[in-house]
Amino acid sequence: MDVRLALTGFGNVGQGVAHLLAGRGEEYENRYGIRLLLTGVADRGGAAVDAAGLNPDSLIAAKKDHQSVAHHEHGEAGLQGQAFLEAAGAGVLIEAASTNFDDAEPGWSYVRSALSLDMDVVLASKGALVLHFKELMADARERGKRVMFAGTVGAPVPVLELAGTVLVGSTIEAVEGILNGTTNQILTSMEEGASYEDGVRRAQELGIAETDPTLDVDGWDAGAKAVIIANAVFGADLALDDVTREGIRGVTADDLAKARREGNSIRLIARVERHGEEVRASVGPMTRDAGETLGRLRNDQMGVVFRTDVLGLVSSTVEAAGGVPTALTVLRDVFNLASQRGWRER
Asked: What is the pLDDT, as a whole number, of residue 320?
């Protein structure tokens, strides 16, 4: 069965999706019984659309050579928004555009348009979830649509899958995790003797930090992920302002050296926990034993630890982060959506 995908945003994650489809599309079809077709891809410059399916490699080439898929042979400058979604004729929106936490745009408009066009939604961007979680889920339920968002919380760590499937039957009392690979890379570099500024530059050279790393180093990104966990896993109704937040700018080389002498490490950790009927979320530098699950993670590695009443501590870590691993998490959502919809033939 063909599953037609419209992709908004063609940065690291969007190109990661294209890379995986180019190299593994046939394997995925043989393994899962569905053929994934990119019928539309949009970025800031415009879009490329082809009902027969766009060639992923040619999309990557157009982006590399001309900075926009609008220069693709099937491209059109300025084609965006609902007009793009209508032209793409897809059944699933993958929303991977850069969004902000002020108004969640442009992702929020794309998501609302997709639902109005009877599309299911797979999210890699966080803005719509952080600012409009309850409204989004209610709209999707009313329309009989599904919204998948495993790629928004520390991907490729399977945070939401663990909470939603593996831990069913137990009560999750707390979740804590290293959910931002950029800050972990910076802190690791500082442990190895780099200054904070050099650590940021190193992360930028590796392609995991933005030119302006504020959202990462000040804890906004991790805080947004804590909000999504609180609302999706704990059933809370938290906003970003409800998260107690501290970034890593105040962590010094002396702090890291002292922790290391004592067999510990300092990491930026997002934490969500129950306090009676209340759910609290926080982000900040925390000291962990260097041999513990989170304390041993270095560079851009990420991980999560659940504290449960029946199973005790349940954890998951990953060594690979970045655009392609996150894109794989996005496609994992597509495959799971296909199973839920009965599209898969295997």
From this structure: 75
Check which CATH number belongs to the domain holding 255 and give it: 3.30.360.10
> Based on the domain organization, do 106 and 31 belong to the same domain?
yes
CA–CA separation, 144 vs 161, rounded Å? 21
What is the secondary structure of 29-67 as a DSSP string?
Answer: HHHHS-EEEEEEEEETTEEEE-TT---HHHHHHHHHHHS
Residues 6+ apart with CB under 8 A from 125: 9, 95, 96, 97, 98, 99, 107, 152
* 168 and 207 belong to one structural domain: yes
pLDDT digits (tens, 9 = 90+) for 35-76: 999 999 999 999 999 999 999 999 999 999 999 999 999 999
**pLDDT beyond 90 at 321:** no
**Domain annotation covers residue 346:** no
Looking at the structure, do residues 177 and 265 belong to the same domain, yes or no?
A: yes
Cis preceding-peptide flag for 106 (omega within 30 of 0): yes
Number of domains in the chain: 2
Residues with a catalytic annotation lie at 225
Question: Which residue segment(s) compose the domain that 11 sits in?
Answer: 2-156+324-341
What is the domain-level CATH number for residue 139?
Answer: 3.40.50.720
Q: Which residue has the tokens 């059933």?
A: 235
pTM over cut 0.90: yes
Instruction: Answer whether 188's CB lies under 8 Å from 256's CB.
Output: no
How far apart CA 271 and CA 281 sit, in angstroms, is: 6
**Quick check: is 256 in a domain?**
yes
pLDDT in tens, 188-240: 999 999 999 999 999 999 988 888 999 999 999 999 999 999 999 999 999 99
